[in-house]
Amino acid sequence: MARPKKVLVLGSGGLRIGQAGEFDYSGSQALKAMREEGIETVLVNPNIATIQTSEGMADRLYLLPVDHDTVARVIERERPDGILLGFGGQTGLNVGVELNDSGVLKRFKVEVLGTPIESIKDTEDRERFVKRLDEIDVKTARSKACTTVKQASAAAERIGFPVMVRSAYALGGMGSGVARNARELNSIAKAALATAPQVLVEEFLEGWKEVEYEVVRDSYDNCITVCNMENLDPMGIHTGESIVVAPSQTLTNDEYHMLREVAIRTVRHLGIVGECNIQYGLDPFSNDYRVIEVNARLSRSSALASKATGYPLAAVAAHLAVGASLASIPNTVTGSTVAFFEPALDYVVVKVPRWDLERFRWVDTCIGSQMKSVGEVMAIGRTFEEALQKALRMIGTGMNGLVLNRFEFEDLDAELASPTERRVFAVAEALSDGLTIDEVHDRTYIDRWFLHRIAAIGAMRKELTGRKKGTPWPDVLKRAKRLGFSDLQIALATGSTQAKVRSLRKKYGILPVIKQIDTLAAEYPATTNYLYMTYSGTDHDVEPRAGAAMVLGGGSYRIGSSVEFDWCCVNAVRTARACGYLTIMVNCNPETVSTDYDICDRLYFEELSLERVLDIYEFELPEGVIVSMGGQEPNTLAPMLHKKGVRILGTSPVDIDRAEDRNKFSSLLDRLEIDQPQWTEASSIREAAVFADRVGFPVMIRPSYVLSGAAMAVVWDRESLDAYLTRATDVNPETPVVVSKFIENAKEVEFDGVASNGEILLYAIGEHVENAGVHSGDATVVIPPQRLYVETTRRIKQSARKIVSALDITGPFNIQFIAQENRLKVIECNLRASRTFPFASKVLRKNFIDIATKAILGEPVSRVEGSALDLDLVGVKAAQFSFSRLKGADPTMGVAMASTGEVACFGHDMEEALLSALRSVGLKMNGKTVLISTGPIETKRAFLPALTKMKEMGYRFYATSGTARFMRRNGFDTETLRWPLDGGKPNSIEHISNGKIGMVINIPKNNEEEELSNDYLIRRAAIDNEVPLFTNLRLTERLIEALQVHDFDELPVKEWSEY
Amino acid sequence: MTAKGGSMAGHLVLEDGTVFEGSVFGAPGTSDGEVVFNTGMVGYPETLTDPSYRGEILTLTYPLIGNYGVPSFTDAKERFESDDIHVRGLIVSDYIAATDHWEAASSLGNWLADEDVVGLTGVDTRALTMRLRSEGTMLGRIVMGKSAGRSHARDVIDPNSTHLVGEVTSKEVKVHKGTGPHIILVDCGSKRSILTALLERGCKVTTVPCEHPFSEMDADGFMVSNGPGDPTKCDPTIDELRKVMKRKDTVPVSGICLGTQIMALAAGGRTYKLPFGHRSQNQPCHLIGTDSYVITSQNHGFAVHKDLPRGWQVWYRNLNDGSVEGIRHRTKPFSSVQFHPEARPGPTDSSGFFDSFLEVVRDG
Asked: Are A522 and B61 an interchain contact pair (Cβ–Cβ within 8 Å)?
């Protein structure tokens, strides 16, 4: 193999369920590795919020969709001689295979580096896979590849129910499920075959252990397994949905090494070069096993394994792809050994997924063989109990640990029978409730080993609760801490307070110790700065290094807080380092770049809790803590840390509180004579109603504690106000709701800025395409604004200046405005970096975080001159939704955020950028047929100009009854399709599922619908059949305008420096 | 179950006076030995019964130990590398008294109790390991109760000063039937898996005690086993092996672990004590002169010096510290590895060692 000079790296696009931040980590490492190898890189990835799309990572960057046609055009322009397919998730892999099959790679002489295409196909095509493994006597699950539902039924009958149905070439187990009878098989197979050409019906290994190995092989046939992992949840629950433990806990030497040997034999036979993951089912009663699948690429598991072991899998895989040998790559953790070795762990790692299902109406909340989680955390401890409880706190859903949480189960039996995201809590509860280990095992198949550990936590809770009065004694306290109990948990159990427990245990000298992750279990001295804390130990591995700058990360990725904040954290650390500070990073998310230990001087892979941050602070005694980079989670800690005497760097916590506390902020705005929507805090339905009557409907409601349903809602009349407040939340003096006037037909504007001592240094104004009412995380945002009056912009700047000065801001901030004509209102102000910081930084080519960090550290910074309005380019940010993964969820946009990621593209005009961005989030143009239902009469009327444009472009119109009548009356030739619930033909649903509709435009009625409606069914059908769906009037209008100006299939392909 | 309050306190004291507190499981009692650590994450039944651990107080660096219990000796003899536990004490961070695994017949603690071996849990094994790594392997003593100030372990007798191999070698010659080549296995404390590896490949195996006059025995090949302690204490074995290697009929000779050191000494080479030994399942070794590397299981405190006598060459080298992991004669069919190709515990990647040895035996 000739060594390549220029390599194309494919990214994975916007974060979505099944393909998230882990590929920023892997892609960034690949780019770094190529740089070390002296190889030029070209990256295609529209994910603006990633580290890999930052300056200084790739030599050439295309913020463009990762699809066959676009990448083919990039190849034609750039002429790379090699391509890396394993670093951009399933998207990157699939596009690579397509480029190979279409002959593009051959035509332009691009060599696939690392694992060859044929090996990839061996792993992706189930029938080939089984055949290849048969050749070396490796067992796979009995299975049959089927292309029709009929074939699938026959296969299931032969294999015997229950069977697992999986679709080929799918990310995160999409379209798969367990069928226990013919009826279930029918529906799963049908759904899966709608999106994939082939499904696999295979024997379902119910109750078998699920184990995986991460394997690395170089082109000299040297092969190692870096890590193995065991799922707490046995077969049947997707590994992305499982609690995962590394290393395996319940495997003997023979089992461990039998599977390891099979892994190596398989990987050698398949000819993998680089990294791959192999998943097994292991019989809990014998040495029998099945290989479930091999992923011939970096994956979520490999990111986890990297962080769990300290072995940089992605970087190593990249070096191997260009011909390096494992023995030639240094082990950067020890600094004295090389990459050919297998890490020995002297700690236990637990990964827990993070779900956000409660945000979605009508979503199926059960977890199973399809992935629904949106993020994950990883905890490290020296007992399993410690790691588990840490992890459960880290997920950021307000859990105190495994026990002593504030929810109860209504029906434990049901919970055990059909697991939801609260399964592990239900198991703990069941064991405390008197069910035996065996009884719980019989219902869940969770290995008794794990159940014993869970029971041990429950037993400790009882021990603590039993001794409410009197001082808790050092011994029990010590044991509780070893089992991962937080000070708060201990306080709750003993009727004390967190602060009292903390001072008590400090008095007894019960403190966590700091241990290093060194890949070799202390066998060799290590220079590693990768740290965690545990109560199972007496000695610290490191000495404090005073004077550092400590940055708090964002924790688990979730809807509303994702890779964009990791970008901010990484940049903050880089700047602090460049300014000569020692840096300490605290974070617990294995999918991030901020937890790469070479980013900072010390990495604490730890909880972002008051208790743990104080533990670290008191040990290290840093110069101060930066809380404004990791999103809301660290920001929320600021006032509490401040109260404990922690020095917060940047804007004072007192001022943070003045912005966060609604009453204080409101009176500040009044004093500054800045307008805001009227609002009140209501502690009863009546109070809310009185307010709504006074200001007029619609009003927006934000509960302070959410039971179920969406966090926020807009209600349009008294009836829905009552309904919402009864259904979704408790409203009483303890948990009041904030009710504010909802302004209709207003524009929403983002003001992102950086200030120093109350003076703005740099800012960007982002205009929402959608009207106010769509959460800013879901909105399509344009920089610079295209449709704002100059006067509005001027007033925005004026208001921002006043607020920044009044709050004496030092660091990043974000203010959200709504504008009607030139009338401005402030709706929110965050004294931290916002979601749009990477986007703004990359459009303006000014690193907002770099400047913010310097301001925070008191380094000299001067005002950045120049206005965003002078830019020659337009940047458009579009939201990436994951509705196709969330069975049943209503795919609409509202005041509560629903998207899981974002992309941004540039253009010389708004239209170009918009189309590229929409294409990047998966928009496809399949013929000019459109099904329209446009809701109320005002929307119908407003949409007429757009309809005219579509008519000019030759669209064929279908519409539901009312819309069709209206359209015909206005001169549009329209075919009526019946509503789903009406039945009758021609039916809208049928047309969608038969592929007769190329696009669905469904503008929902104003009100949040309480019942399953016709509109919902149409929207859902569009998602389930992969038909592009538009639900927002403004966005649809802009799309149609753009399609008139540009050819969707011939969008300009430009490197970002060309803009 | 994680060690609970109320269980008996105990502690380990090192020869330099360092104390590590913990609580006792297994059989309570005082125990002296050389304190070593092993970084393997699985395989404690195999490890504890490996005769090479004779005289050692073993620290396992993986914190959760006992997870899958211990199988029944009668039903699953192959899970035990010999009939007895050889360590003098076991030190862990979090002892788990589990018996849930399908193969488990007893908990680790009960097994230790039955075999009269003391265990200590709740110890900061990482701190202990770091101490042993930086100061070198030390002698130590497990003592019951909390430490009461100035204790030390200076009077512990170094097991390496005794002839440990003599304690673990078999007492008599034993013949194991087979249809293939006849191999003499010189038992210096051989792991069961070495015998199994030979028998599985069809060999007829005669195991002989280490001081048996085996040099004149009729055989197609010799294999010198692993074993505990200092190889220089094995003079009779070294002498016999020297005679074997001088035989006119040039019988192929091989060795594993201690066997390698004995072979080196028999050939006129030197051995030395490693600062803290190699005891783990993840030792990378380089096959000299190739692009080939192998992950190996290891357990040795002594090693062969890289300056080999004339006619000999280094075969494998440790990738981490460069130490000798295998030697071979340039012309004669004598070769030996420092690591454990028979695995158990550990990776099976180097099992081809037996095949290539038997190829040589058959060709010879």
From this structure: yes
Q: Does A347 touch chain B (CB under 8 A)?
A: yes
- Of A795-804, A884-893, A1023-1032, which gets the smallest average pLDDT? A884-893
How far is the C-alpha of A509 from the C-alpha of A876, rounded, in Å?
Answer: 55
Instruction: Mutation target for B interface from A209, A218, A252, A518: give the one with most B CBs within 10 A.
Output: A252
d(CA A386, CA A350): 9
Q: Which residues of B are catalytic?
A: 257, 340, 342
Determine the distance in angstroms separating the CA of B356 from the nearest CA of chain A, rounded to an integer: 19
Entry pTM: 0.96
Instruction: Name which CATH class applies to B8-161.
Output: alpha beta
Contact criterion met (CB below 8 Å) for A761 and A855 = yes
pLDDT tens-digit map of B237-264: 999 999 999 999 999 999 999 999 999 9
* Test the A interface: residue of B68, B106, B107 with most A CBs within 10 Å: B68
As annotated, the residues of chain B forming the CATH 3.50.30.20 domain(s) are 8-161
> Which residue, A204, A209, A88, A200, is CA-closest to A155?
A200
Rounded CA gap, B294 and B280, in Å? 14
Q: Is the CB of B281 inside 8 Å of chain A's CB atoms?
A: yes
Does the beta carbon of A445 lie under 8 angstroms from any beta carbon of chain B?
A: no
In chain B, ranges of CATH 3.40.50.880 domains: 165-362
Pairing of strands A209-217, A223-231: antiparallel
Q: What is the mean pLDDT of residues A669-688?
A: 94
CB contact at 8 A, A354 and A374: yes
Q: What's the token pair of residue B311?
A: 């006619």
What is the gyration radius of the CA atoms in chain A, in angstroms?
28
B238 to chain A nearest CA, in Å?
Answer: 31
Size of interface A-B (CB pairs under 8 A): 177
Mean pLDDT of the residues in chain A:
93
pLDDT for A359:
83
SS3 string, A651-716, reads CCHHHHHHHHCHHHHHHHHHHHCCCCCCEEEECCHHHHHHHHHHHCCCEEEEECCECCCCCCEEEC
A879-906 pLDDT tens trace:
999 999 898 899 988 888 999 999 999 9
Q: In whole angstroms, what is the distance from residue B114 CA to residue B80 CA?
A: 15
Residue B132: its pLDDT value, please? 97
Asked if the Cβ–Cβ distance from A539 to B127 is below 8 Å, we say yes
Q: What is the pLDDT of residue A1012?
A: 63
Q: What is the largest CA-CA distance in chain A?
A: 83
Q: Architecture of B165-362 per CATH?
A: 3-Layer(aba) Sandwich (3.40)
Average pLDDT of A312-330?
Answer: 96
Please tell me the distance from the alpha carbon of residue B210 to that of residue B227, in angstroms, as a whole number: 10
Rounded Cα gap, residues A577 and A575, in angstroms: 5
Residue of chain B with shortest Cα separation from A253: B43
Q: Which of B101, B146, B340 to mutate to test the interface with A (most CBs of A within 10 A)?
A: B101
pLDDT range class, residue A290, cuts 50, 70, 90: very high
What are the backbone dihedrals phi and psi of residue A62, each rounded to the nearest 5 degrees, phi first?
-115, 110
DSSP string for A299-330 = -HHHHHHHHHH---HHHHHHHHHTT--GGGSB
Please check whether residue B320 touches A, CB under 8 A: yes
Give the pLDDT confidence score for residue A709 in this predicted structure: 40
Query: Using an 8 Å Cβ cutoff, are A211 and A287 in contact?
Result: no
Contact by Cβ (8 Å): B109, B95: yes
Comparing CA positions, the residue from A867, A755, A840 lying closest to residue A804 is A755
Cα separation of B61 and B277, whole Å? 14
CA distance B263 to A403: 59
Instruction: Find the CB nearest B100 among A247, A448, A521.
Output: A448
